Amino acid sequence: MAETNSQFPRSLEGVRESLGQQSGSNRALLLMAPLLAFELLVFVVPFFILLRISFAEESSDLVYAEGTWTLEAYSSVLTSDLLWSIVGFSFLLGVVVTVLSVLIGLFYAYAIWRSTGLVKSLLLFSVVLPLLTTLVIRTYAFNPLLAPSGTLNELLLSLGLISSPIQFVPGTVGVVVGQLYIVLPYAVLAIYSVLATMDWHVVEAARDLGASRPRSVLEVVVPQAMPGIIVAAVISFAWSVGAYAAPDLLSGNITFAMQVEGLMLSDMRYPLAAAFSVVMLLLMLASIAIMFTLLNRLGGEFELA
Amino acid sequence: MSSNLRRERLETAAFRAGYLALLALMLLPLLVVVVTSFSGTGRLAFPPESYSLMWYVEFLDSVRWLDAFTNSIVIGVGTALVATLLGVMGAFGQEIDDGSLGSILAPLVLIPLLIPPVILGITLLMYFNEVGLRGSYASIVLAHTLWATPLVYFVMRSVFSRFDWQQLDAAQDLGAGPVQSFVHVVLPNVKHGIFVGGLLAFIISLQEFVMALFLSTPSTETIPVLAWTEIRQALDPMVSVVSTFLIVISVVGILLAVVATNLEWLSKQLS
Lengths: 305, 271
What we know:
Chain A: InterPro entries: MetI-like, MetI-like_sf. Chain A is an all-alpha fold. Chain A has two domains: 54 residues, no CATH class; 233 residues, MetI-like (MetI-like fold). Chain A is built from 15 helices and no strands. The relative contact order of chain A is 0.12.
C-alpha cells in the first residue's frame, strides 16, 4: 500500500509538468496513474526480481546469495529427469483437461444460449456458483464421491457393474475430473459470452438449406464462436498446467506447482524455484502461442468452407 | 420424412438429457459440501450415516476458525476497496483519454489473470521478502488486488461505455468542477456498476487460496488457507461447515448483484 501511495503524487506531478494545462488528457492520465503504478509495482517489478533470483547462486544460510550471477539453477532444472517428468505430467494434465473443457464447455454454452427463462437462469447459476466458491471446496468434495469407499464405487458395486472398487481418487481420473470442474465454468462463460452476441437466424438458414443439426453447429456455430473457444482453451490450459489444489488432493502424481511449492516453502531453494518457474512460464507461453495459431487456422478454414 | 422427424426428436432428447446431466454434475460437489456439513459422525461420507448440528457447534467454539474468518473479511474488504478505487479510476481515465497510454493499460491489467497463481505466489513472496511486507495483511490484499482489479476494470469499462458522456460535458459547461461533475452527474449513473465490481472483488479475495497460502502466516491465514491445511491433515465434516458458510456468502452476493443490476436496468427504464 505504502508504495502505491508514495508513487502516486510523484507520477501526478510528472503528468502535470509534462502536459501543462491540457486538461482532458491530463486528467485522464492522472486517473490511470494509480492503476499503472500498481501494476508496475506489484506485477512487473516482482517478475524482474524473480528473473534476477533465478540467476543467483544458492546459499546455505540465506534463501539465495545476493549479488551473484550464475546459470547453475537453470542447468539443474534442464538436466533433472525428475523435473522433466513433472513437467511432462503437468502438460499432459493441461492438454487432457483443456480438450475436455473446451468440448463440454461448448456444449454447455450452446445449451445455455438455446434455452430460455428459468432453465437458462438455472444453467447460468450452475456455472457462476462454483466459480464463486473456493478451489479448496470445489476439489475436496470429489473425495467422498470418488474414493474407493465413496459414493460412485458403492453405486457401481450395488448395480453389479464392477466386482471390486476402482481407485479413482487418488488417481489420474480423479485429478482430471477435479481440475475440469475448476476450469469448466470459465470455459463455459468465455464461449457463452461470444455466442450471446450471435444471430440464431444464421444457424436456422443453414438448416433450411439442408444442413443437419450437428453439421450446422459444427460449420456455423463453432467458427463464429472461435474467439470464445480460444479464450476458453487458453484459460483452461494455463490454469491446468499450473494446477495445484486438485493434483495435491486427488492425484498420486506430482505437478509443477506442487514441486515448486516444496522447493520454495520446505527446501528454501529460491534460485531453483525461480528458474523452474521461468522455464515453465516460457514453455507455457510457447504452447499457448502454438494453440492460438492452430485454433485460429481452424476457425479460418471453417470460414472458407 | 418420418425417419427424419424421429431422428430430430432423438437428437432433441439426447441434447436435453446431456445438459441436464451436466447441470446435475455441476451442482453435485456443492451439494456434497452442504449435506456433509450436517454429518453426525467424524467421517466425511456422502450421504452421511447420520445427521446432526455438532460440527456447526464445534465451528462456533473454534477460535482458530473464527480468527481465519475475521482475516478473510479484513483482506476481502481491503481488496474490494483498493481494487474498486484503482479499477474505477483507471476505467474512467481511459474513457476520457485520447492518448495511447490507455491501450497498454488493458493488456497489462489482464495478464495477471492468465498466470498460474502458484507462479504469482512465488513471485510475490520473493518480492515482499525484499521490500519487507512479508506476513502483513497488505501483502495478501495487494496480491488479491492483482486478480480483483481486472474484473472491476472490465465491469466499469462496459458500464462507462453505456454512459452518455454529453451529460458530463453539459455539467462542465454549466460550471461544475471535475470532482463536482463526477459526483453529481457520473456517479449516480454508474453506482450499481461500482457496487457489482466491488462485490466481485470481495468474492475473488474471499475464495482465493493459492497466493494466500504462499503469503499468509499463522496470524493472517484466511478461511481457504486454513481449510486447506485442515484437509491435508484429516478430512472431517468441519471443512464442510466452513465451506457451507462460504457458499452461502457467495449465493447472497450473487443475489445482491442481480438485484443491483436489475435496479440499474429499472432506473434506466424509468428515466
